[in-house]
Specification:
2 copies of one chain form a homodimer.
Chain A (H helix, E strand, L loop, with lengths): L5 H21 L5 H11 L6 H11 L5 H23 L8 E2 L2 E2 L1 H4 L2 H20 L6 H15 L4 H11 L6 H26 L4 H28 L2 H4 L5 H4 L5 H27 L6 H11 L3
Helix pairs in contact in A: 1-2, 1-4, 2-6, 3-4, 3-9, 4-6, 4-9, 7-9, 8-9, 9-10, 10-13, 10-14, 13-14
């Protein structure tokens, strides 16, 4: 199954995901400037980690890229909406993301708010209209996506992250915030892919554990890159966590301690993959990729 | 079937809807302040027109209040989210709604943005988890709701409404904006109720026509009240359209012309109801209620 190097695999799937994202948005009969704003953030060059994870998880079972692609782009739309709203002046007030002006800088605040609302809502339309999925699958995919991205998931994480600024939190509280803010969508990625691939319930349970640790790996590495990373590779200023007084792993554990913590998470993630019978899939390589990424 | 006066009917259903809204939110395991913010706008005392319309439409066919209530409150959550985002400083910048401080005034902008996102996302969770609906019904309800409230529906309407400020539009353009901004959710209300009640496709089609005119009636009356209404009854300042330089029916047609236009819409709405075989339901009385409301 692992017939390509990971880099080729990622590049090929990025292309497929990008093509389908364009396909879902280019022909939408909606006001021009609203569409431009949605497309602007969708095309701003993300790593497409979530849709690729979904596709890789689907391949680990009864893989069918055609069945997985629409849910994968719906997930990327949810992720993109969350970035647009997160960057707003009232939230993180970021002017630059991925080396480009953020949505509300490029357009305006009202358009950015509506483009985010539109991407969020449209993602549910895409999944519920997918002709290749059964009604039962669609209902489960909508249940899980609304849970993962809603007030019990990502929105709670964003809210707690905001509340945690300017106060110190424990490593346990930090893990909870990241699990909600980042981990829930990663869990959705792997469990949605597996669900479309007809994995068993116990396999999905193990994959959720895998995704939990993958989310923590992602976050530790994010924090480490903010200390040691290269501004040009990252497309954003380094040291911003420090100036935002954010609680981070390096701050709580030191840079060395954060690296050791990451290794523990990597081992736990790979163990969970073995239990899910998915340790011969690209998910295994993606774990190292998440852990070692430089942007 | 029409065993109560319309006022009693509306009051009873308002109570049922309010109870279920509280029920869906009170026990949510989410951050306190986020929940307070969601509840604040949900409890700010709306007329609950959309959920009542959904319930009335359901009753016109194989009515079952238990099957309709969850979709009804999901719809009210979508409506509430749209008001929270609409009131934001970057959008309409309203400090008061229904006689109370708007969400971002009572809490803060970031919380208001997230409370809106949370209500929008949670509404899809509620529908997809309703144990009384079939998977087929849930999929159709999610398809229709995401269409009605997304970039081809309500969000497009809000965007066009924003673009139309400070410029003159034709009556046709005005109708299109209102149809998207208000009409799409009203269409959802009646078609979702009918769908849950197993109405035929052609009945749903006629109901959509009914809802189209109902939306226009709603909007003409809104515009008329902004000219002739009572500030205390409305819970918002009158004359704000004039000072916002908004295109309105009274401005385009005069107050008398707007009243005549409303009568034409009422007749068309009632004709569509007859065609849908729903002219002996509360939908008929609700049409007059929409047309004659004073707040």
């Amino acid at each position: 199954m692992l017939h390509e190097t990971l880099d080729t695999y990622i590049e090929n799937n990025k292309r497929i995901v990008h093509h389908e994202l364009k396909n879902q948005l280019d022909y939408l009969p909606i006001p021009n400037r609203l569409k431009e704003s949605m497309l602007y953030s969708i095309e701003a060059g993300g790593k497409r980690l979530r849709p690729i994870l979904l596709i890789a998880s689907n391949e680990a079972y009864e893989g069918d890229p055609q069945k997985a692609i629409k849910t994968a782009v719906a997930l990327e739309m949810i992720h993109t909406y969350s970035l647009i709203h997160d960057d707003l002046p009232a939230m993180d007030d970021d002017d630059v993301r991925r080396g480009k002006p953020t949505n509300h800088i490029m357009f305006d605040e009202a358009t950015a708010i509506l483009a985010g609302d539109a991407l969020l809502t449209y993602s549910f339309e895409i999944i519920s209209n997918d002709p290749l999925l059964s009604d039962k699958q669609k209902v489960q995919l909508v249940q899980k996506l609304s849970y993962a991205s809603g007030p019990k998931g990502m929105v709670a994480g964003q809210f707690l992250d905001m509340e945690a600024e300017n106060k110190s939190v424990t490593i346990k509280e930090l893990e909870e915030i990241h699990d909600l803010k980042t981990g829930e969508l990663l869990k959705y990625a792997v469990s949605a892919g597996a669900l479309i691939g007809n994995a068993s319930q116990s396999q999905v349970k193990d994959l959720n554990e895998f995704a939990y640790y993958l989310g923590l790996i992602f976050q530790v590495q994010d924090d480490i890159l903010d200390v040691t990373g290269d501004q040009d590779r990252l497309g954003k200023p380094v040291g911003s966590d420090e100036s935002n007084k954010k609680s981070t792993y390096p701050k709580l554990l030191g840079t060395h301690g954060a690296l050791k913590q990451k290794e523990i998470y990597v081992e736990k993630a790979k163990n969970a993959l073995k239990n899910a019978n998915a340790d011969h899939s690209y998910l295994m390589m993606l774990t190292d990729y998440f852990s070692e990424r430089d942007h």
